[in-house]
Amino acid sequence: xxxxxxxxxxxxxxxxxxxxxxxxxxxxxxxxxxxxxxxxxxxxxxxxxxxxxxxxxxxxxxxxxxxxxxxxxxxxxxxxxxxxxxxxxxxxxxxxxxxxxxxxxxxxxxxxxxxxxxxxxxxxxxxxxxxxxxxxxxxxxxxxxxxxxxxxxxxxxxxxxxxxxxxxxxxxxxxxxxxxxxxxxxxxxxxxxxxxxxxxxxxxxxxxxxxxxxxxxxxxxxxxxxxxxxxxxxxxxxxxxxxxxxxxxxxxxxxxxx
Length: 258
Known about the structure:
Elements: E1 5-9, H1 16-29, E2 37-41, H2 47-54, E3 60-63, H3 80-85, E4 90-93, H4 96-101, H5 106-118, E5 122-127, H6 131-135, H7 139-151, E6 163-166, H8 180-198, H9 200-205, E7 208-211, H10 219-223, E8 230-233, H11 240-250
Parallel strand pairs: 1-2, 1-8, 2-3, 3-4, 4-5, 5-6, 6-7, 7-8
Helix pairs in contact: 1-2, 1-11, 5-7, 7-8
Protein backbone atom coordinates (compact mmCIF):
# COMPACT_ATOMS: atom_id res chain seq x y z
CA UNK A 1 0.00 0.00 0.00
CA UNK A 2 1.17 3.53 -0.80
CA UNK A 3 2.41 5.38 2.27
CA UNK A 4 0.18 8.40 2.98
CA UNK A 5 1.73 11.87 3.00
CA UNK A 6 0.56 14.72 5.25
CA UNK A 7 1.96 18.20 4.57
CA UNK A 8 1.58 21.09 6.99
CA UNK A 9 1.75 24.41 5.12
CA UNK A 10 2.28 27.15 7.70
CA UNK A 11 2.06 29.92 5.10
CA UNK A 12 3.05 33.39 6.41
CA UNK A 13 2.65 32.50 10.08
CA UNK A 14 5.17 32.26 12.89
CA UNK A 15 8.33 33.94 14.02
CA UNK A 16 11.44 31.78 14.29
CA UNK A 17 10.76 31.17 17.99
CA UNK A 18 7.11 30.28 17.36
CA UNK A 19 7.98 28.01 14.44
CA UNK A 20 10.59 26.10 16.41
CA UNK A 21 8.16 25.63 19.30
CA UNK A 22 5.47 24.32 16.95
CA UNK A 23 7.91 21.98 15.21
CA UNK A 24 9.03 20.63 18.57
CA UNK A 25 5.45 19.86 19.61
CA UNK A 26 4.78 18.08 16.32
CA UNK A 27 8.03 16.11 16.55
CA UNK A 28 7.26 15.00 20.08
CA UNK A 29 3.71 14.08 19.16
CA UNK A 30 4.93 11.95 16.26
CA UNK A 31 6.88 9.58 18.47
CA UNK A 32 5.62 6.06 18.07
CA UNK A 33 3.46 6.87 15.06
CA UNK A 34 4.21 4.74 11.99
CA UNK A 35 2.96 4.24 8.47
CA UNK A 36 2.66 7.90 7.45
CA UNK A 37 5.11 10.44 6.04
CA UNK A 38 4.87 13.95 7.48
CA UNK A 39 6.30 17.15 6.00
CA UNK A 40 6.38 20.64 7.50
CA UNK A 41 6.56 23.79 5.38
CA UNK A 42 7.44 26.76 7.63
CA UNK A 43 8.23 30.28 6.40
CA UNK A 44 11.66 30.68 4.79
CA UNK A 45 12.99 32.59 7.80
CA UNK A 46 12.26 29.64 10.08
CA UNK A 47 13.73 26.86 7.92
CA UNK A 48 17.08 26.74 9.72
CA UNK A 49 15.56 26.59 13.18
CA UNK A 50 12.93 24.03 12.25
CA UNK A 51 15.56 21.92 10.49
CA UNK A 52 17.58 21.76 13.70
CA UNK A 53 14.48 20.91 15.72
CA UNK A 54 13.55 18.04 13.38
CA UNK A 55 17.05 16.57 13.30
CA UNK A 56 16.96 12.88 14.14
CA UNK A 57 13.20 12.61 13.56
CA UNK A 58 11.33 11.12 10.60
CA UNK A 59 9.74 14.45 9.69
CA UNK A 60 10.81 16.19 6.49
CA UNK A 61 11.05 19.85 5.56
CA UNK A 62 9.50 21.68 2.59
CA UNK A 63 9.79 25.11 1.04
CA UNK A 64 6.54 26.97 0.41
CA UNK A 65 7.67 28.25 -2.99
CA UNK A 66 10.73 28.43 -5.21
CA UNK A 67 12.13 30.27 -8.23
CA UNK A 68 12.80 28.59 -11.58
CA UNK A 69 16.45 29.70 -11.68
CA UNK A 70 19.30 28.47 -9.49
CA UNK A 71 20.58 32.02 -8.98
CA UNK A 72 20.32 35.48 -10.48
CA UNK A 73 19.04 39.02 -10.11
CA UNK A 74 15.65 38.09 -8.66
CA UNK A 75 15.21 40.25 -5.57
CA UNK A 76 13.22 38.60 -2.82
CA UNK A 77 13.19 35.13 -4.42
CA UNK A 78 14.64 31.83 -3.21
CA UNK A 79 16.28 29.22 -5.43
CA UNK A 80 16.04 25.43 -5.41
CA UNK A 81 19.64 25.04 -4.29
CA UNK A 82 19.03 27.46 -1.39
CA UNK A 83 16.13 25.28 -0.25
CA UNK A 84 18.26 22.16 -0.52
CA UNK A 85 20.97 23.82 1.53
CA UNK A 86 18.34 24.72 4.12
CA UNK A 87 17.46 21.04 4.50
CA UNK A 88 14.33 20.88 2.38
CA UNK A 89 13.41 17.59 0.73
CA UNK A 90 10.12 18.88 -0.74
CA UNK A 91 8.81 22.14 -2.17
CA UNK A 92 5.27 23.35 -2.85
CA UNK A 93 4.76 24.69 -6.39
CA UNK A 94 1.65 26.21 -7.94
CA UNK A 95 -0.28 26.77 -4.73
CA UNK A 96 -3.59 28.45 -5.49
CA UNK A 97 -2.59 31.51 -3.46
CA UNK A 98 0.50 31.92 -5.63
CA UNK A 99 -1.59 31.55 -8.77
CA UNK A 100 -4.34 33.89 -7.60
CA UNK A 101 -2.55 36.56 -5.57
CA UNK A 102 0.77 36.65 -7.42
CA UNK A 103 -0.52 35.81 -10.89
CA UNK A 104 1.74 32.81 -11.46
CA UNK A 105 1.11 31.22 -14.82
CA UNK A 106 1.14 27.53 -15.70
CA UNK A 107 4.42 28.20 -17.53
CA UNK A 108 5.99 29.76 -14.41
CA UNK A 109 4.95 26.73 -12.40
CA UNK A 110 6.37 24.35 -15.00
CA UNK A 111 9.73 26.11 -14.72
CA UNK A 112 9.65 25.85 -10.94
CA UNK A 113 8.80 22.16 -11.05
CA UNK A 114 11.64 21.28 -13.43
CA UNK A 115 14.15 23.41 -11.52
CA UNK A 116 13.10 21.73 -8.26
CA UNK A 117 13.56 18.26 -9.70
CA UNK A 118 16.95 19.21 -11.14
CA UNK A 119 18.04 20.34 -7.68
CA UNK A 120 16.93 17.08 -6.06
CA UNK A 121 13.78 18.46 -4.47
CA UNK A 122 10.46 16.64 -4.59
CA UNK A 123 7.78 19.04 -5.88
CA UNK A 124 4.26 19.08 -4.49
CA UNK A 125 2.35 20.32 -7.53
CA UNK A 126 -0.93 22.02 -6.64
CA UNK A 127 -3.82 22.05 -9.08
CA UNK A 128 -7.45 23.06 -8.73
CA UNK A 129 -10.37 24.99 -10.12
CA UNK A 130 -12.13 28.16 -9.02
CA UNK A 131 -15.81 28.21 -8.08
CA UNK A 132 -16.65 29.89 -11.40
CA UNK A 133 -14.83 27.15 -13.31
CA UNK A 134 -16.63 24.41 -11.37
CA UNK A 135 -20.00 26.05 -12.02
CA UNK A 136 -19.16 26.16 -15.74
CA UNK A 137 -18.45 22.44 -15.66
CA UNK A 138 -14.81 22.76 -16.78
CA UNK A 139 -13.05 21.39 -13.69
CA UNK A 140 -11.45 18.49 -15.58
CA UNK A 141 -10.40 20.72 -18.46
CA UNK A 142 -8.71 23.20 -16.09
CA UNK A 143 -6.88 20.52 -14.14
CA UNK A 144 -5.82 18.71 -17.29
CA UNK A 145 -4.30 21.95 -18.61
CA UNK A 146 -2.51 22.66 -15.34
CA UNK A 147 -1.04 19.15 -15.22
CA UNK A 148 -0.03 18.93 -18.86
CA UNK A 149 1.77 22.27 -18.89
CA UNK A 150 3.47 21.75 -15.53
CA UNK A 151 4.66 18.23 -16.38
CA UNK A 152 5.42 18.77 -20.07
CA UNK A 153 9.20 19.08 -19.70
CA UNK A 154 9.61 16.39 -17.05
CA UNK A 155 11.39 13.13 -17.72
CA UNK A 156 9.30 10.00 -17.25
CA UNK A 157 11.31 9.05 -14.18
CA UNK A 158 10.60 12.46 -12.62
CA UNK A 159 6.91 11.80 -12.06
CA UNK A 160 7.85 9.21 -9.44
CA UNK A 161 9.37 12.05 -7.38
CA UNK A 162 6.41 14.37 -7.85
CA UNK A 163 3.36 14.67 -5.61
CA UNK A 164 0.11 16.17 -6.89
CA UNK A 165 -2.19 18.07 -4.54
CA UNK A 166 -5.77 18.79 -5.56
CA UNK A 167 -6.97 21.94 -3.86
CA UNK A 168 -10.26 23.35 -5.14
CA UNK A 169 -9.71 27.09 -4.87
CA UNK A 170 -13.23 27.67 -3.60
CA UNK A 171 -12.61 25.39 -0.60
CA UNK A 172 -9.40 27.00 0.69
CA UNK A 173 -9.91 28.98 3.88
CA UNK A 174 -13.67 29.09 3.32
CA UNK A 175 -14.76 26.21 5.53
CA UNK A 176 -16.30 24.53 2.49
CA UNK A 177 -15.21 21.16 1.21
CA UNK A 178 -15.67 19.13 -1.90
CA UNK A 179 -17.65 15.99 -1.12
CA UNK A 180 -15.80 12.66 -1.00
CA UNK A 181 -17.40 11.72 -4.32
CA UNK A 182 -16.28 14.98 -5.92
CA UNK A 183 -12.76 14.54 -4.55
CA UNK A 184 -12.54 10.94 -5.73
CA UNK A 185 -13.72 11.91 -9.20
CA UNK A 186 -11.07 14.61 -9.57
CA UNK A 187 -8.29 12.46 -8.09
CA UNK A 188 -9.20 9.65 -10.48
CA UNK A 189 -9.06 12.14 -13.35
CA UNK A 190 -5.63 13.39 -12.22
CA UNK A 191 -4.32 9.83 -12.27
CA UNK A 192 -5.80 9.31 -15.74
CA UNK A 193 -4.03 12.41 -17.07
CA UNK A 194 -0.74 11.30 -15.54
CA UNK A 195 -1.26 7.87 -17.08
CA UNK A 196 -1.73 9.44 -20.51
CA UNK A 197 1.52 11.35 -20.07
CA UNK A 198 3.73 8.81 -18.32
CA UNK A 199 2.08 5.39 -18.49
CA UNK A 200 -0.05 3.29 -16.17
CA UNK A 201 2.66 1.97 -13.83
CA UNK A 202 4.03 5.43 -13.08
CA UNK A 203 0.55 6.88 -12.67
CA UNK A 204 -0.26 4.23 -10.09
CA UNK A 205 2.83 5.20 -8.11
CA UNK A 206 2.15 8.89 -7.57
CA UNK A 207 0.56 10.23 -4.42
CA UNK A 208 -2.40 12.57 -4.84
CA UNK A 209 -3.24 14.74 -1.84
CA UNK A 210 -6.36 16.70 -1.05
CA UNK A 211 -6.16 20.24 0.30
CA UNK A 212 -8.88 22.73 1.12
CA UNK A 213 -10.15 23.58 4.62
CA UNK A 214 -8.81 20.32 6.07
CA UNK A 215 -9.65 20.13 9.78
CA UNK A 216 -9.60 17.51 12.54
CA UNK A 217 -13.37 17.12 12.30
CA UNK A 218 -13.40 16.30 8.57
CA UNK A 219 -10.02 14.58 8.10
CA UNK A 220 -11.39 11.06 8.48
CA UNK A 221 -14.13 11.67 5.91
CA UNK A 222 -11.57 13.11 3.48
CA UNK A 223 -9.16 10.24 4.13
CA UNK A 224 -11.83 7.68 3.25
CA UNK A 225 -12.40 9.20 -0.20
CA UNK A 226 -11.07 6.93 -2.94
CA UNK A 227 -7.73 7.91 -4.49
CA UNK A 228 -6.79 10.19 -1.57
CA UNK A 229 -3.18 9.41 -0.60
CA UNK A 230 -2.78 12.14 1.98
CA UNK A 231 -3.61 15.74 2.79
CA UNK A 232 -2.21 19.24 2.30
CA UNK A 233 -3.14 21.02 5.53
CA UNK A 234 -3.17 24.80 5.93
CA UNK A 235 -4.59 26.57 8.98
CA UNK A 236 -5.07 23.38 11.01
CA UNK A 237 -1.33 22.72 10.83
CA UNK A 238 -0.64 25.80 12.99
CA UNK A 239 -1.86 23.98 16.13
CA UNK A 240 0.13 20.87 16.94
CA UNK A 241 -2.82 19.05 18.54
CA UNK A 242 -5.04 19.64 15.52
CA UNK A 243 -2.36 18.66 13.04
CA UNK A 244 -1.43 15.52 14.94
CA UNK A 245 -5.06 14.43 15.12
CA UNK A 246 -5.19 14.70 11.32
CA UNK A 247 -1.97 12.69 11.00
CA UNK A 248 -3.37 9.96 13.25
CA UNK A 249 -6.24 9.39 10.83
CA UNK A 250 -3.66 7.96 8.43
CA UNK A 251 -1.47 6.15 10.94
CA UNK A 252 -1.04 2.46 10.30
CA UNK A 253 -3.47 0.47 12.40
CA UNK A 254 -5.59 3.49 13.36
CA UNK A 255 -7.26 4.34 10.07
CA UNK A 256 -10.83 3.09 9.85
CA UNK A 257 -11.84 0.81 7.03
CA UNK A 258 -14.31 2.23 4.46
